[in-house]
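Proteins fold reproducibly. Take a tokenised chain:

. . .
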Amino acid sequence: MSDIPVCIDISHHQGYLDFDEAKRAGVLGVIHKATEGTTFIDSARAENCANALAAGLSIATYFWLKPGEGRAQAEFYLSVVDPVPGERVVIDYEEAGCSLDTLRDAVQALLDYDRDLKVTIYSGHLLKEQLGNGCDDFLAEYTDLWLAHYTSSEDDISWPSGTYEEWALWQYSETGEIPGIADSYVDLDRFNGSEAEFLAWINPAGQPKPPPRPEPDEAEVNVAITAPENVAVKVTVNGELPRRRFRLRRQVRRGPDILR
């Protein structure tokens, strides 16, 4: 598995990112938190999404579902984001106390928005325990699965396969390190398909898809400098001072309801 995934998911906890640097490292897409419940709006979403698009990355957004009325929470999200036709929308379904009825109501509200939205459910053991081995026909028909299960091997993961034959995204780590995110960990996600298929999945349906990233340049330049102790040395790379990229990373408080 590559150290740099094609997709990362972020919120205001990561602050404001250098998306040009993330793209150069190999990231293709970003999924950003937008809302939570019926009152909270992620303060970093609008600027981060605009900057990600300007850097040539694909974006989608999610809302955190809380116990209560699912339709009201979905409609609040729609009022904030106003997604375009065919856009990918993710429901973060992990908080204890949430029910499948709440989830179905939220999904139905997205379908009723009449913009042919593509709906994904993010969850871990909460959804697995509630679905069990049975099949929820409504979720199977109208949604796909973004699975949270932190392990290093696909052989170790499990999901509610009675409803979802495959997972679309697999969130395999909450402690990733990505160029462009200097002082916090980030969630890492693997797509169940090729890079071209990922771009088709995350981008609004019917819109042109960005090309897959080019093969990385393997060229490397090694420089050794020997100078007297009383001589100051200043190094530039292509006319710029090298950037320091190694800082203490903080653990992001996200509280995912995940499989471990």
User: Anything to note?
Assistant: Residues 243-260 have pLDDT under 50 and may be disordered. The two ends are 19 Å apart (CA to CA). The first strand starts at residue 7 and ends at 10.
